[in-house]
Amino acid sequence: MSIGRTKRSLLNIGVSIANRMLVTLLPFAIRSIMIYTIGIEYLGLDSLFTSILSMLSLSELGFSSAIVYSMYAPIATGDDDKVRGLLTFYKHVYRIVGISILAVGLIILPNIKWFIAEGTTYPSDVNIYFVYLVFLVNTSLSYLLYSYKSSVLIAAMRNDLDSIIETVRSVLAHALQIVVLLLFKQYYMYILVIPVITVLNNIARAIIIDKKFPQFKGNGTLTKDDKKEIMTRVGALIGNKLGGAVFTSVDSIVISKYLGVVVLAQYTNYFSIFSAVFAIETAAYGAFQSVVGNSLVANSKENNYALFKDLFFMNTILTFFCVCCFTSLYQPFIAIWVGNDNVLGIEIPLLLTLYFFVKSTRKTLFTFYEAAGMWRSDFLKPYVSVIVNLTVNILLVRIIGLPGVIISSILALALIEMPWESVVFFKQCFNKKPLEYARMIIKSVILCGACFGVTFFVSRFLPYGILGLVLRLITVLIVCSVLAVFMLFRTKEGRRVINRFPGIFKR
Length: 507
What we know:
The structure is a single chain. The chain is mainly alpha-helical and 507 residues long. It contains 18 helices and no strands. It has helices spanning 3-37, 41-56, 63-77, 80-108, 128-144, 150-155, 159-183, 187-212, 224-259, 261-298, 301-338, 347-371, 381-400, 402-430, 435-459, 465-489, 492-500, 502-506. Helix 4 packs antiparallel against helix 5 (128-144). The protein is globular and about 60 Å long. The model is unreliable at 1-6 (pLDDT under 50).
């Protein structure tokens, strides 16, 4: 990688992480203000309608990823005509997607109450059909108004500019919503801010992109072979898009349908913390994405396997820090943030902790998997995972309630996705059986389990409140730091990691 590309990658990573942290913190402020000004039931409606429309957005079917991938080569070689052709094709696809979402959404509109559990409440002063329509129009507009142009920023390695635009949009939108909630305490005004900001953001983004990349303005055409290649790539991505939607959106729909929007809002408080931490971890993993991709192309299987083990080792340290924080801090933080009335049973944070461990442990393999572009190698995996997850989800939520939603996701990841990916990837990329990977996971389970046990035991004797939160955090930092130092400086794996990434540990 050239010096220029290295600097650009580091800039992208830094700006992306800063953006992710800011975009993560702002919704916490919004949720807090909504709960204390108009009530938690409104949060449940937000989560439900957002999830329904996320499912409708599956009609996009991975075109964004396929188009961006197709742009890398023509942008690198200066083939502006082909880039214009890709953008024109992308624009037509997104117009079809936007219209399809609007049409299907309108079909669902008369039956929107079906998604809310019978006998449960939702805000009586709100017309849920109107609220849903606002969310629907916003989602449709996001596809119809210039959003296809954002692919240029990603393909041209200007993620930093994309993150800056997104940061401005997020700050402006949340600031206006906070003002509306504090001054007027009006939910209708709060949601109407969303489509207004979407329109302004898409127009401003298009102007900025056209100014930065004037060579890509105008229409172009693609050959039949180019379109066929894109469609083939989309076909390989459909399953992964579907799987991602089920793991994120279907849970909210199932909770609302069987347990009600109030329970959904309470659960979303917990899950928003989970998502925030995992999103920041994902952004941090972006620092190694290009390293992994370059290594898979340039180095031997043994060197790549050594890199995999070192990243997994580092990930284990990061994971047990997060697991212990979840174990000790979840309940007291929720109590301080949204009040004791919205604290769920201890089984919810414990299950979310286990879910985070599984997702985080999988992260190293999945990073290699994506870098190798192996979507076609396990074409059936996401479909099997979706069927199992959805079936178990609905069965368990009717038997044991909210914990069943989390358990179904854990089972789908741990028993289907991780084993399937490991068998396919280790065979094709490392020419090894995944038994060593199983041993690595067992070690990670033991280490995280030990940290979990100590911090959970100590936390039982500590109070809630601000003081208790501080004491719990100190306990987590001491326990995890001691184990991390031992792993890094007293094991051969740790010393190898320090030698591989000396700059990280010097800083």
